[in-house]
Design goal:
The protein is 18% helix and 24% strand. The protein starts with a strand and ends in a 26-residue tail after the last strand. It is α+β, with helices and mostly antiparallel strands. The longest helix is centred in the middle third of the chain and has 10 residues. The protein has a domain of 72 residues: Alpha-Beta Plaits, CATH 3.30.70. The strands form two sheets. A four-stranded antiparallel beta sheet has the order 4-5-3-6, covered by helices on one side. Strands 1-2 form a two-stranded antiparallel sheet.
């Protein structure tokens, strides 16, 4: 991904009455990285801890498939051998359908608009009082 910075100054039309005039604005030209070619995007059926999904892959015998979190309910699935992941998904369709609503080949139009964060909290009472 290439990143170019440009100061827009007072020529910027802004809905916030000039508050952002002094902030830098960025134009981004995106390019598909080579490592992203022939990767699959899986949309999880429900929001889940990605570590739990990775463990499920290991227990299911698919430990060679790498799972990376992208945002929202999306993960990227990759495998070292080209073309083999498509065969694995096709041969184990029922197993993958238990985790994913859809699995598609990554293309340039894919965009993640949200992020989900998981927090581990310790020492916080589950019974919260309201006044």
């Amino acid at each position: 991904m290439l990143l170019h910075s440009s100061r827009q100054g007072k020529n910027v039309v802004n809905d916030q009455k000039g508050e952002d005039d002094n902030l830098p604005h960025f134009m981004v030209n995106s390019e598909m990285s080579l490592w992203l070619e022939r990767r699959f995007i899986g949309k999880l059926l429900k929001a889940a801890n990605v570590q739990a999904i990775k463990e499920r892959f290991i227990l299911g015998g698919f430990n060679l498939i790498r799972v990376r979190y992208l945002g929202e309910r999306y993960v990227i699935l990759s495998y070292e051998e080209e073309g083999l992941i498509k065969t694995i998904i096709a041969n184990n369709k029922e197993w993958f359908e238990g985790i994913f609503g859809s699995i598609v080949l990554l293309d340039d139009s894919f965009v993640v608009s949200e992020k989900i964060a998981w927090f581990r909290c310790r020492g916080i009472s589950l019974a919260l009082e309201s006044n």
